[in-house]
Write a structure and sequence with these properties.
The complex is a heterodimer of chains A (about 300) and B (about 220). With about 300 residues, chain A is α+β, with helices and mostly antiparallel strands. Chain A contains ten helices and four strands. Chain A has a four-stranded antiparallel beta sheet with strand order 2-3-1-4, with helices on both faces. Chain B has about 220 residues and is an alpha/beta fold. Classes of the chains: A alpha+beta (about 300), B alpha/beta (about 220). Bound molecules: adenosine-5'-diphosphate (ADP) and magnesium ion.
Chain lengths: ~300, ~220
């Protein structure tokens, strides 16, 4: 492509934008809304995933060793636990360590004064690979000879898995639907321009312009619509995200939710938005002119 | 060079527009294509520009064989032909100058080439004073001269005009024909479709007569058989 041709395509593309100011404005608005919805759900899913990762690394199944097991037997229990599927690591905690930890946690002076290591049992903290399989793993831990009792908090794990899976599925579905919607909107805007310019297009064909030459200004028009939408959507996404993060950290009941700061993720978010905007814009213009340029 | 051999055209709706046309127009010729309305004149022009395909027969225009031409070659064929219509087909929102530069840009001409070519072409058609006017500010004859300038601006070797004077009074019509004659003298092949017998007879040029999709006369002057 010649440089003067490129300049021409860009100029024409931009002037197309303004020749249908209102329509372009509406298309950008709807595309921004679509990008924002897609972005917000994807970011919720991403945060749920991150939380789950942290939770996974901290999540433990406590396996209490039977009363009366001496050291060698206790060690055997640990070996068996380590060999179970889905077990990442196993950590031995003596009754003394368990008591110390409890002592630090409790504020009740009376209880503290009357603590005795014999009230506690030796135990293993079992860490898992995949939280989804916690229920199964807990059952297998319980079946290990020498394990007297097991403590496992399935509710917390289940809740997070649900949030993660729902947010993931919803954002996937939304991305698919909203991509189609925004491509359709941009495509309609550009179809309007091609209709407006049908006389010019006829003349271009008559004097021997190639189809690709005729196509380029419309591709640029779509490209700019998409790019503009992604820039605006990115700014708004930042605002929405920061507001949500702030209200979560301000709410008493949601303190335990650690939200990834936007500053940590703005680069991939910006990249994704720009790419999505370009795909939507160029996809929209190609759909619009495909039919128009046959003959 | 334009060569048609046994060309037939039947439209999708069954209209049999051309029934076996054989015709050769050499480079540098000036030819009037005449005949009553519906005799197939415009169909021939659409075939020559690759807008429609013949049902049978062979057509060669400026080295392009139109029955075998690929979609990619059609723009090249069209760059070798300048077309003029009865209704001018100018872009109303663009000035005379912009109409011409638009046609040059469409085939990838550089701004430098555009700047040097347009004044020359405008002078040729006698419109150097009207470069910055809009089509609606011009008379019909002037508008048609803009269309001729646009047809010439990419330096084609053939000009094809479909009833270029259909909307003009006799004096303007004569001017347009004289202009086309002058362009022909500069070396361009010119094919003019018209049904204005008096106008044709003012020039001693080759006349091809078309009736009901057949060539019924070919010689100098309208009356020739
Ligand atoms: N696109 C078309 N579809 C069907 N019939 C057509 C079409 N164009 C022209 N015709 C018919 O073909 C015949 C020749 O038309 P045309 O070439 O336009 O004649 P002319 O230009 O000599 O008046 C006419 O009968 C006309 O009605
Ligand atoms: Mg006609």
């Amino acid at each position: 492509m010649q440089r003067h041709d490129f300049t021409y395509f860009v100029q024409e593309g931009v002037s197309n934008l303004f020749s249908h100011g209102f329509m372009s404005f509406a298309a950008v608005g709807i595309t921004v809304a679509c990008l924002l919805i897609m972005g917000t759900f994807s970011l919720v899913a991403y945060n749920a995933e991150m939380l789950l990762k942290t939770l996974e690394s901290e999540y433990e199944i406590l396996a209490f060793v039977e009363e009366g097991y001496h050291d060698a037997l206790t060690q055997q229990v640990g070996e068996k636990l380590r060999q179970l599927p889905n077990v990442k690591s196993v950590e031995f905690i003596t009754r003394q360590e368990a008591m110390d930890a409890f002592e630090q946690r409790t504020l009740d002076d009376y209880t503290r004064a009357h603590l005795d290591p014999n009230m506690f049992r030796d135990r293993y903290a079992v860490f898992v690979e995949d939280l989804n399989l916690v229920r199964q793993t807990a059952k297998e831990v319980r079946d290990v000879a020498g394990v007297g009792d097991v403590r496992v908090d399935e509710d917390i794990a289940g809740g997070f898995i649900l949030v993660r899976n729902v947010a993931g599925a919803v954002s996937l579905a939304l991305v698919a639907v909203l991509l189609v919607v925004s491509v359709f909107i941009i495509s309609n805007t550009i179809r309007l321009t091609t209709f407006d310019r049908r006389d010019e297009i006829a003349i271009m064909k008559m004097v021997g312009a190639t189809n690709s030459f005729i196509r380029w200004p419309f591709v640029y028009e779509g490209f700019f619509l998409g790019l503009l939408s992604s820039l605006i959507a990115f700014g708004l996404q930042w605002l929405v995200y920061a507001t949500m993060a702030q209200s979560i950290s301000a709410a008493d009941t949601l303190q335990f939710l650690r939200v990834v700061p936007f500053a940590d993720i703005w680069k991939p978010v910006a990249l994704t938005f720009t790419a999505a905007g370009m795909v939507i814009g160029v996809g929209g213009s190609l759909t619009a002119i495909r039919k128009f340029l046959q003959v | 060079m334009i060569r048609l051999k046994d060309v037939e055209k039947e439209y999708e709706n069954g209209t049999y527009a051309l029934r076996g046309i054989t015709l050769t127009i050499d480079d540098g010729e000036f030819v009037f294509l005449v005949g009553p309305s519906g005799s197939g004149k415009s169909t021939i022009i659409k075939l020559l520009t690759g807008e429609i395909m013949p049902t049978s027969g062979r057509i060669v225009v400026n080295g392009f064989s139109l029955t075998k031409i690929s979609d990619r070659q059609i723009p090249l064929l069209r760059r070798s032909i300048g077309v003029i219509f009865q209704d001018f087909r100018l872009i109303e929102k663009k000035t005379v100058y912009e109409n011409l530069s638009f046609a040059m840009r469409a085939v990838g001409a550089s701004p430098r080439a555009i700047r040097s070519r347009i004044p020359y072409v405008l002078e040729l058609v006698g419109l150097e004073e009207k470069a910055n006017q809009y089509p609606h500010e011009l008379s019909g004859g002037e508008q048609q001269r803009v269309a001729i300038a646009r047809a010439l601006v990419n330096n084609p070797n053939t000009i094809i005009a479909d009833e270029p004077t259909g909307n003009l009074d006799p004096a303007r019509s004569l001017e347009i024909m004289r202009l086309l004659g002058r362009i022909n003298e500069l070396g361009t092949t010119v094919v003019v479709v018209t049904h204005e017998r008096d106008l044709v007879n003012r020039f001693r040029k080759r006349v091809v007569m078309l009736e009901q999709g057949l060539v019924t006369g070919d010689g100098v002057g309208y009356e020739a058989k």
